[in-house]
Structure formats: structure tokens, C-alpha cells
Amino acid sequence: MTPPTDPTAATPATPATSGAGDATVAPVVGSVDAPDLHLMTYNIRRRMPQVLSTRHARADRWASRLPALRLLLEAERPSVLGVQEALPDQSAQLAEALGERYASVGTGRDRDRGGERVELHVDTTRLRIVRYESFWLSATPRVPGSHTYGNMIPRTAVHAELADLATGARLHIVVTHFDHLSARSRRHSAVQLRTFTDALEGPVAVMGDFNAVVDSPAHRELTRGRLVDSREVADERLDPGWGSYSNYGPPRVGGRRLDWLLVDGAAHVERAGVGALRPGGVAPSDHDPVHAVVRWPHRPQED
Question: I need a surface site. Which of 23, 137, 139, 209 has the fewest CB within 10 A?
């Protein structure tokens, strides 16, 4: 992709329509054929109970963003979608937008397993969910609502083992959302996830909003084991160096890339990067999604 003329910002091409509900969208990646898998991670920005008194207040309204998000998901059709910041009603709306072919797993971060969620949405025409688990990023990961690393609110991860119906292979996907305030929490969370994924057998991908930039202690910790950053090893990059946190503005070259999609070193990453669709000129979230088209050289496994 050719970098934009402006060294700091670019405006993605969008249809000339009055609103997202009238737009048609060309995907950044879209559906892929086996053995490739389209992995996508997206912080959809939780619905706020009241309009924020900021210059982005209108853009932040969930009712304004949902039609654009629907169009984006209908266009992209990922094999696996990892989501952060979904409240229960938003989770239901995401499932409706994706349709019956997708199954979702996840849990709320609070002690009663309610509240803000991280979750995986899996295309069941391509992948079967073998098993899944949720755990908390803490010294007591099986205790719902626990937070011991210095973060004020609980943080979670969801792990699913999937069977590829096209190739017979098994793979592991983890989605998470690190703390936005505590660097200590992010470091400890990274150690916990690296230890967890190092113990898994077979292909692994870890995705999410890590609230830290590339080359941060959290990124270095996660990539000092078996994982690599898909964007850094891809045959083709989907963006000219955009960050993933655009805050409802255009994507920015050199912006903060807080959202990562990591894969084990055996994976072949054909394409990866930040997507910046604006259906009808509307940003569906304050973050942009990260995509990777990945294949693994694995052998089929029996149940």
C-alpha cells in the first residue's frame, strides 16, 4: 500500500452517502479460502450510559456507530473475530449482525460474570469450537472478578481450541483486553499470557487491545517466547504504518498501535495490518480493527 501524501493522516475512501445505513462497503480482507484463516481483533468501544462532553460526543454514540459496524462486519466476514469492550446488549447486537453461522464464547469481567466482555465469534462453517475457557488476568485467574496486578477493574482473557473443518487441524485462539492505566498490570498480564500460551500444543494466536504500544514492556514480554507480531512478519502489510487508536478521526501514520494480533512463529502470515473502513463516513469505534490472513503447516488431529 502506498503511504498517504500527508505524513501524519489519511482519510480512507468511503462511499459518498449521507449515513452508514445507506453505504456499501468493500472489505479490507473479506472472506478467505482454506487453508487461509482471516483473524480479526476489534475493540468496539463500550456503549456509554450518557453522551460524553467531548468533541467526539456525537461520534461516540452507539446508536450512530452500530449501523456502520454492521456494514463493516458484513463486509469482512472473518474466520475468527476477537472483540473487546462489548456490553451484553452490544454482544447480542454483534451476534445478530454476524448471523447464525457464527458462534460466540466469552464472559463478563465482573465477579458475577456480567459487565464488559471480551469474546470470540467463530465462523462455524469453517471452524468448530472444541472447548473454551475464560480466566482473569490476576494471581487467581479462576476467581471471577479478581484483580491483583494493580489494575482497579478486572481484566479477562478467553481461550478457545478450534478444529479447522477444512484441514482437520487444531488451533488455539486467545482474546484479551489489558488495563488502560497500570503499566505494572500490563507487564504481569503479559507474563501470565506468555506462560499460558507457551504451554499450549499446536498453533496459537493471541489478539486484543493491549493498551500499550509496540516495543513496550508488555509487547516485548509476549513476543519473547513463541509469539511474533503478525504485522511485522507479514508478506504484505495492509496499512502504511497506521496506529489502531484513531479516536473517531482518520487513521494516522505513526499513531499508537495498541491492538495487536500475535501468532506463533510457525505461522505463515500472508497479509496483516490495521483496517480503517468508514462506512458512510462513520467510524464504528474509537479503535480500528487489526486483521491477519494466516495459515499454519499443521497436520490433521483426531478427536
Answer: 139
